[in-house]
Amino acid sequence: MCETCGCSDDAVVHHEGHSHTVVLEQDVLAKNDHLAGHTRQRLRDRDVFAINLMSSPGAGKTTLLERTVRALGDELPFAVVEGDQETQLDASRIEATGAPVVQINTGAGCHLDATMLDSALGTLAVAPGSVLFVENVGNLVCPALFDLGEAARVVILSVTEGPGKPLKYPHMFASTDLVLLNKVDLLPYVDFDVAEFNHDLGHVNPRARVLELSATRGDGLDSWYSWLRARLPLRSVPS
Ligand SMILES: Nc1nc2c(ncn2[C@@H]2O[C@H](COP(=O)(O)OP(=O)(O)OP(=O)(O)O)[C@@H](O)[C@H]2O)c(=O)[nH]1
Ligand SMILES: [Zn+2]
Ligand SMILES: [Zn+2]
Ligand SMILES: [Zn+2]
């Protein structure tokens, strides 16, 4: 893993002091950020609100997207980019909702980058004024490093993942605008302390909002939909 983004090279640097590998990683990220800046401008020009959705594998990203598109699809145009190492499984689930979708397969790669999103947007019909969801590869580490040109970052953490995640994966939690604490229907069965989670998150990102959700049972979804609607300042909602 990580041969594309250089994050493992950085670990080598810390142990063995190869300064040239640091330069390489910075170069990769600088090129990525440059392209992401262009993508951000392009999306803004078309009033497209792009969300980079990140989590561990299986936290509930696709389930939330399916549900959101089905609930709000009459109100808002959606488009979805799916990122996974292999398979079209998530794209097929989104396709069934009727939203335009394209699947990116990263092979050995552990994250999406700006080049991948740029080429996916070349084949995806994103209507002006859309909400564009980009479901990143399930991984709490590398996706945090790569700006895709999104307008907002959303991290899902499920209560089955255990304590301490904001402290263990600070880059992911520090760079997010919103944390969705998912699978709260399972709270009676797992050892997860919501107050402790909020406390830990406050250490790495005091400005992030937290919404408690169950993407399957439906808890908290109205708050999520309200957050989404409130982030669409470019749209004029007819009265
Ligand atoms: N109990 C419970 N299960 C959930 C909830 N949300 C998702 N799941 C289940 O969690 C599993 C993984 O959900 P997905 O939506 O595929 O997760 P994902 O984050 O898209 O997974 P990857 O794309 O593989 O990283 C599925 O079996 C879902 O039904 C929830 O709120 N409560
Ligand atoms: Zn990695
Ligand atoms: Zn990586
Ligand atoms: Zn998924």
Nearest-angstrom radius of gyration? 18 Å
Give the H and E element order: HHEHEHEHEEHHEHEH
Shape verdict: globular
Number of strands: 7
**Strand percent estimate:** 15-25%
Distance between the termini: 50 Å
Describe the biggest sheet? Answer: 7 strands, parallel
Mean pLDDT: 91
Class computed from helices, strands and strand pairing = alpha/beta
Q: How many helices?
A: 9
**Regions with pLDDT < 50 over 5+ consecutive residues?**
8-15, 235-239
> What compounds sit in this structure?
guanosine-5'-triphosphate, zinc ion
In short:
39% of the residues lie in helices and 17% in strands. By secondary structure, the protein is of the alpha/beta class.
Give the helix/strand layout.
Layout: H1 7-16, H2 19-45, E1 49-55, H3 61-72, E2 78-84, H4 89-95, E3 101-105, H5 114-121, E4 131-135, E5 152-158, H6 165-168, H7 170-174, E6 178-182, H8 194-204, E7 209-212, H9 221-230
Parallel strand pairs: 1-4, 1-5, 2-3, 2-4, 5-6, 6-7
Helix pairs in contact: 1-2
Bound molecules: guanosine-5'-triphosphate and zinc ion (3 copies).
Describe the structure.
- 39% of the residues lie in helices and 17% in strands.
- With 239 residues, the protein is an alpha/beta fold.
- The protein has a 7-stranded parallel beta sheet with strand order 3-2-4-1-5-6-7, with helices on both faces.
- Helix 1 (7-16) packs antiparallel against helix 2 (19-45).
- The radius of gyration is 18 Å and the shape is globular.
- It binds guanosine-5'-triphosphate and zinc ion (3 copies).
- Residues 55, 57-63, 84, 90, 138, 182-183, 185-186, 214-216 line the site of guanosine-5'-triphosphate.
